[in-house]
Amino acid sequence: MRPFYHLLGNNLIANITNFPVWFALTFWVYIETQSVFATGMIAGVYLVFTSGFGFWLGSIVDHNPKKLAMLGSSVVSAGFYVLSLALLLMSPEAAFANPYGVHLWVFVLLVMLGVIAGNIRSIALPTLVTVLIPENRRDKANGLVGMVTGIGFLTTSVISGFLVAWGGMVASLAFALVFTFLAFAHLAFIHVDERRLGAAPGHPAEPKRVDIRGTIAVIAAVPGLFALIFFATFNNFLGGIFMALLDAYGLSLVSVQMWGLLFGVLSTAFIISGIVISKSGLGKNSLRTLLLVNLITWSVCCVFTIQSSVWLLAGGCFIWMLLAPYAEAAEQTVLQKVVPLERQGRVFGFAQSVEQAASPLTAFLIGPLTQFVVIPFMTDGAGADAIGGWFGTGPARGIALVFTLAGAIGVVVTILALRSPYYRRLPTVYAAGTANEARNAATIHP
């Protein structure tokens, strides 16, 4: 377990490298431009890159030692952060105040590429759980992964708010470069005994290529697995709304320093749920856990912006963050058991690509839609006249209405998923186990 714990610690260092850059960029751009359109576009750029690169990054993880892939991600991230910092220092400050300016969006693209390079770690770590952890303990190990993510959010949301207030993006990028170097140096000294998989008995060795068709065939061979991925895709379709609007809504209620500090306090929910999962697991039916968690979180989404209150917002976000690791750990545990290890990098990458494909559409659409349609609707339009007396009026209440509608849609879709035949098929496959698990164990521990 010692290498696994070191890898968790290293991922924590990487998280407090990349998360603050992403958070700080959104905070900084909103403060510079005061544009919900711009923050929506940033969320969209991030999610387009995540979706577009996911399958390719998964292929890198499958075809190379996973430690080497993670080291490479740090090098690439550092390169893009250096370019971003150089552009920022060489450009006039006023160039970044225009939400439609070329300087701003070239800068955003460079920063986002640095952040996305770190996504190799989010694909490699679940596959290393398969390699290093026995099957009956993987749900608990996935809980620890969620806990590390939570600690990352706790520290980085606080850090990013104060970095932006203190030194803007210059301080944020300098901070990221220091921690990128620390993550690389630490990982270089971690010994990970990776038994590279050979070909399965009776099968030729795989060529080193992305092989989308073969990976889709592996997913299709497991009843209900596509349904699981597409359910998560729809969740992310709605989740793009949070990526685009949550910071703008929070900053309409409190200062950037207070929002960063509040988000850090709320992120303790990730840690609490990670600890609970690492002790008690996910139960016998991980898929049912996933769907029930989604039902609760979307129900909360219906009401957590129903009135203009930072306490109501904080309570809803806390419940959301408390339950999110359960959903993530449940999906990872299912995939780790029913997918062959030699394909897990590409399947995790495929899931990341497909699941994130819906969010860019939402993020790109929801920013302009909220800015130019919903906000006027709730400021002096028909919505303000119809429900403004109790719901409130103005730009922030327009954003709040979008959250409420997204929650209602999420509840309906989750109930439909619980009643679907796909839900009944996949738990049967998972409970029975598969030949993949036996083959993985035999290959890793001959």
Please characterize this protein's 3D structure.
This protein is mainly alpha-helical and 446 residues long. The protein has helices at 2-33, 36-63, 66-90, 102-117, 119-132, 138-188, 212-220, 225-253, 256-266, 268-280, 286-301, 310-338, 341-379, 382-391, 395-418, 421-432, 435-444. Residues 196-204 and 434-446 have low confidence and may be disordered.
Structure described in brief:
With 446 residues, the protein is mainly α.
Properties at a glance:
83% helix; mainly alpha; single chain; 446 residues; 17 helices
Please specify the SSE layout and strand pairing.
Elements: H1 2-33, H2 36-63, H3 66-90, H4 102-117, H5 119-132, H6 138-188, H7 212-220, H8 225-253, H9 256-266, H10 268-280, H11 286-301, H12 310-338, H13 341-379, H14 382-391, H15 395-418, H16 421-432, H17 435-444
Helix pairs in contact: 1-2, 1-4, 1-5, 1-6, 2-4, 2-5, 2-8, 2-13, 3-4, 3-5, 3-6, 5-6, 5-13, 6-9, 6-10, 6-12, 7-13, 8-12, 8-13, 8-15, 10-12, 11-12, 11-15, 13-15
